[in-house]
Amino acid sequence: MSAIPAQPIGQSDSFHALLDRVSDAASLDRPVIVVGERGTGKEMIASRLHFLSPRWEAQFVKVNCAAFNDDMLDRELFGESFMDGQDDTNGRFYEADGGTIFLDNIETLSPRLQEKLMRAVEYGEYEAGGEAHTQQVDVRIVTATGIDLPAAVARGEFRVDLVDRLAFDVITIPPLRYRPEDVAPLAEHFGRKVAGSLGAESFPGFTPEVMVELETRPWAGNVRELKAVIERNVAQAFLKDEALSTPIAALSFDPFDGPYRLRDSRPAPQIQSVETLPIYKESSEPQSEGALSQPDIEASPIEVKQSFADRIMVFERRLIDEALKLSEGHQGNAAKHLELTYHSFRGLLRKHGLKK
Q1: Domain identity same for 71 and 121
Q2: pTM
């Protein structure tokens, strides 16, 4: 039996709705596609689908499709038979027989492997490299992607018939920026964990101002980025005070920042920022019970010459102004509009010099 994973952490409504969707899907022995941005925890959701399913006592086998070239991935998934006396290799589908196989970054599969995977999904059979006969396998297939897979199908980059077979159910993980209520418990969990590993007797947490800063960041890297920031800053605080006697009152978000930072004069490639993060729109179609929807937030163009921190401040101020306008100046309703606690919204007002 595979090791049972840690319990997911969160307290937002969208997080609990996500867990309900996973619990429902786990009981159905059918393929599932898990969709989410980088760092949202797609593997965690896949493992939960396995361990809540009737297959939980069998193997949960994980494969990152992006980590292999085409031939290597073929051997990794389906194995290879040799005619020259070498020992045959069993692929990951063979290992997962009776259990679940999780294929991450499914969008990187070549057309040839998409065809082989389609037969495994449709008929429960595959051919190992070098073999002329098929092997039967009983495997539940869970896949994950960080892209708009239907758009890839429309561009001819992914087989529509394979998507039809894999998408018996599709579970989309809401990004961390849409569930700020989950930031505090996650930050406390990561903080306590790293403090304990360093030998600290306790973890004092963060000041209210720091917590507001954490809750209002866009977190392009989602939970993975939050974890890295918390672990790095708690470790630095421990080096200054091994007792960790006071709450952490300041955070460094950029580990490369410093007076002697090396600068590359070449233009940087386009990366995800607040303006380029995917927009999650509410569907006009009726949604099934438990389905998740995210607000339609369109970021206005921001002056490129501004620093990253300045651009974040401008974006935050626009959200505050919009919320106050929609709520006619009522701060409690404005906090609800932004899905923030009243305390967090008041902290934002203080941060921008707007608190009366």
Answers
A1: yes
A2: 0.76
